[in-house]
Amino acid sequence: MMPTFAQYHAELQALSNRMTVYLDRMEARAREFGAQAKQTAAELQATDPNSVATFRMEIHRQIMFLHTKAERAYEQYISPYEDLEDDDDLSMDEFRVLRNLTEDIEHEVDSFEDRMDAVIEDIFAAGQANQTRQEWDRAIAEWRAAQSSFTCSQCGAPVALPELYHVAVYVTCGGCGSRVTFQPSEAMRAAPRWAEELADAECADLKRTYEAGHEGGGGMDFVSYVYYLTSQFRVLSRLLPFYARSLAPQMPGKIRAAWEDNTDQLTPHEVSPRHYETEYLNVMGNIGVTAMGMRASGHTEHLALILGVVRDVMRPGDPLAQSILDGTFTEEMWDRRQAAADRMSDAVPR
Ligand SMILES: [Zn+2]
Question: How far apart, in whole angstroms, are the C-alpha atoms of residue 101 and residue 94?
Fold first, then answer.
């Protein structure tokens, strides 16, 4: 006799639990292995940094084999349940319930790859941070050396290099007025990569907050992204102003993409009027409070970035957004607008 739906369901539940235990045990094993590898990685970083990449590939291969094992376990024990559609004793609804279970397990196995990636990251994190710092220091040292040695090809006078240029640039000789080409060294060309990593490390908490996401969203994911992006850009501007200025034109595009990805503001017909309004007010209200604080404490550069975001996403002529730009925003204005939003319909248009 063919198993019933209840039997299939119980079997899959049991397999799901076993898979969870199996994956947890493999992760524990990977972390134990990682603790030893971490010491080796640190030693190699100190004595033979060029061999770190080869060592990392080997570690990656060994740890990712655990993910392959998990996939094989799925193939062997779970995937046969994917074909139950052919079982005439199951209704379509019953089949869907079972299919959801197998899909949940499949997702758990897929995301095991991310867990293994995190183990690998952790093994090399300290060495990576060290390398970033060393390469960055080298770029700065070579810039300083160029500052004192770079001279005009026409008249031989020293030519100032006020900023670290990561690409070839024309600079004007103060002596004879000719435009001379400065070619950055290899370390200087690589400076943006290391500056990005240093800036990301400095804004790691903000990045984590954004990546973790906010339960229910409500515009807060966008707000977190704005705080992360503008803070990271602030650090980049401090470390490598020439490079940061070259990135500035991309900021509005990044903000618009995040607005589209993290809010429902571009699809008002798909959400209720109350949700649409509340999400907008959450964004403007939170940014308004932050901008007020920045104005008060004199963080004018960061404030300018935040106000740029308000301009990028505000509804044209919206008085609340305008008050943030004018510096007249108050929490009372936000509250009044929210009270009006609370009276709006919560029904999604059909
Ligand atoms: Zn000259």
Answer: 11
